[in-house]
Each structure stands twice: as C-alpha cells, then as structure tokens.
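seq:
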Amino acid sequence: MISNPITWPNGARCAVAITFDMDSDSFLHVENPTSADRMIATTSWLRYDQIAVPRIVKMYEKYNIRQTFFVPGWCAERYPDTVKAIMDGGHEIAHHGYLHEHPNSFSANEEEYWFMRGIEALEKMTGVRPRGFRAPMYNFSKHSAELLSREGFLYDSSLMGDDIPYLIESSLGQLVELPVDWSMDDWPQYTHNPDLHYTMPINSPDRAMDVYLAQFEAAWEYGALWLAVWHPFVSGRLARCSRIDKMIQYMLEKGDVWFAPLEEIANYVNDEIAAGRYTPRREPLPFYDGTIPELSILK
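struct:
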C-alpha cells in the first residue's frame, strides 16, 4: 500500500501522534471582531480548554507519553497558566498562528507580520523558539513554506499529501511535512455551534473512534504515521477524553507503536534521510502561482 515505507524506531509498526490545537476563543474574535464580546455561551464553550488541557496532560502522564500541542500566540498570552500545564508535562508547544488567523487570505507581508508575532509570543512564554507549525484551519499559503524555511523551522503539519512524512520544498529550503487529514480531525465528529455556523450532528465517542481506529489499524498494518488533530475544548470533554484514554490503552496493548511528539518524529525522519535509510517523496511548493492557463479566458 505504501511504495516507499519508512522504518520506525525499535521495530514499531507505526508512529502515533495525538496532537491538540489549543485554540480557545482566539478564532471567535477573528471571525466575529465586532460581536465576539456578546457571544458569552460560545466563549465559555471555547474556554473549556482551561478544564480540558490539564485533564489531557494528566492522561498523558498516566501513560508516560509526550505529545505536541499547537498554540496560537494570543492564547499563550491570554492563558499562560494553561500553557504552563503543557510545559510542566514536558510536551512540545508548536506554532499555530497568532490569533488563529488564515494565512492564505493575506499578502506575504501580512502573513509575515502575524507569523512573527506568534513566534515572539511563544518564545516569550516558553523560552524557546517553536520548531513546528500548523496553519490555522490548515490554511497554508503559497508563501508559508518560504517563511518557515527562512525562520529555521523543522517541520510543518498542515498539508494532506501522503500517509507518511515527506519533504516540502521552496526557494529557501526544505522541511519535513507530517501530513494530516480531515478524517483525523475531531471537528467533523463533534462540533455543533450556531454562532460559528457549524450545525452538524454530534457523534458519540464510539462512533468517532470507529473512524480514528480504522485509520490506526491501517497505519499499524502498513507502517504509516497516525496523526490526530484534536482540540481540548472538543475532545477533552469528559466522555470523549475517557474514550481517548481507552484508545491509548488499546494501542499500547496492541504493541509495536511509537508514541512521540512531532518534533521528535521530524528529527527522526531527517536522521533516517541523512543515513540513507529513507528516501522521502519531495513536493515543491507552491503548486500554482496563479490561475491555470486553461482558465485564462476568464480574466
């Protein structure tokens, strides 16, 4: 199924990364700049991160695993105690914009401004520059790869082009892409909020796990990267987090699973490339630099 498989450490059949995007109410202000202050119930729903993050960190501690949290810079400034709980658990904190803005809606200069502001906020909070990035809402822009390479980032986790790590290339360099997929996001499974114009049926934790574990079984069989993109205020709710706990137990009992934060996975990929043991697929970016010529008649 995978034409160029990577060998995972210690004979593991797959790599597992349960990442959380700690967005809190950042995007509420981006999407509703003049009315967010009146959306009290929705704000409280999003601020559940303050309950969920310590719960998730404690769950990870129970199993002695370290993982990655993507945090907008504004959230680090607004909720330092919550971010400190992540740091105290020994987890990686990666870049997720400043205010959960959409990079692909900006000019290059605008994207750079918010990107650098996010770095500054996280570095001030953690004492280290972030090494990884996930574009808010996966809205990676045609300038993002160059910006990430210029600032010395190790990896990105916004794109959806493979089942295993690969390399993305720009005019300024290359970095490891740790690919995601909407099937591994908790938003389609659980999110219902009229203020945000999401009114989807809410699945049970077991129904959501049917989707996630189907992906896990395939990753384990074929040697893929299993990478969840979840949100504390969504999947950190009581019944859902309890089901995640059982999921981790199941994965550990199945065995031959490598749990690791994304920075560790990206470093391992680079080491395997340098040693000549892995030849990744390479993808130059951006894919297009404007309207395709077949549609030039529309200009």
